[in-house]
Amino acid sequence: MKTAIIESIEKHKQQPNLKFRLKETTEKFTDILFYTLFDAETPVEKNMEKLEATFEELVDLACWDVEKPCAKLWDNYIAKLPQILELLNYDAKAIANDDPAALSQEEVYLCYPGFYAIAIYRLAHELYKVGFPLVPRLMTECAHKLTGVDINPGAQIGKSFFIDHATGVVIGETAVIKNNVKIYQGVTLGALYVAKELQNTKRHPTIEDNVTIYANATILGGDTVIGANSVIGGNVWLTKSIPANSIVSHTPDIKIKTVTNE
């Protein structure tokens, strides 16, 4: 009986390249990256050696396609790290400058889930752009698990991005977010509908410069553009473009029940 069960399970394990060790190694790589870039007590030179060794593990686990030798990507990736760090410092400054609850920039790096999610997204995005399999998505899923923020590594996000409170934010693969954009918890930048044939099309909205999107707003569609300097109020549902300098609000219909004493 036991032998038959084992044989049946082995028969139905259909993905020879599915190794959950890849998730663990990606989490390890992500942690080392974060400490290397931000922790004052972490020696950069020593950690670069750890990063390279861990990256080699990722190559062995994820890059089973011999036509795409991932190992060659390492030098190009680390060359981008200073630029990514510069962008992340702008993100941290945007949060520290805009949020009255932020008492220091150190607090942003240590405590803000929105900043952590943005940091991991930016580090994953560079690997996504060169087609490194699975790892970029696993990196952003690490952040998703810890913060409740789901940013697909394919999204394009500009300078000085601020996610306040963070929980429940969803940013789709083909979303474009330009500079100095601020969004609050529960915001969705999504697709109008899901269909596999849309895989290579722009399905998610474009957010222009200096836009603020308040809590639980939903903006859908690849053709939807939110014009620069606009403010999108909480709970707004948008599937069409709006021009620059717009204010969009959701007005609830409030009815007060009158109770009569008989």
What this model shows, in words?
With 262 residues, the protein is of the alpha/beta class. It folds into 2 domains: 19-148, Orthogonal Bundle (serine acetyltransferase, domain 1); 168-250, UDP N-Acetylglucosamine Acyltransferase, domain 1, CATH 2.160.10.10. 42% of the residues lie in helices and 12% in strands. The protein has a 5-stranded parallel beta sheet with strand order 1-4-7-10-13. Helix 2 (21-38) runs antiparallel to helix 3 (44-62), helix 2 packs across helix 7 (135-147) and helix 6 (113-129) packs antiparallel against helix 7.
Give the topology.
Layout: H1 2-12, H2 21-38, H3 44-62, H4 74-98, H5 105-111, H6 113-129, H7 135-147, E1 150-151, E2 156-157, E3 162-164, E4 170-171, E5 176-177, E6 182-184, E7 188-190, E8 206-207, E9 212-213, E10 218-220, E11 225-226, E12 231-232, E13 237-238, E14 247-248
Parallel strand pairs: 1-4, 2-5, 3-6, 4-7, 5-8, 6-9, 7-10, 8-11, 9-12, 10-13, 12-14
Helix pairs in contact: 2-3, 2-7, 4-5, 4-6, 6-7
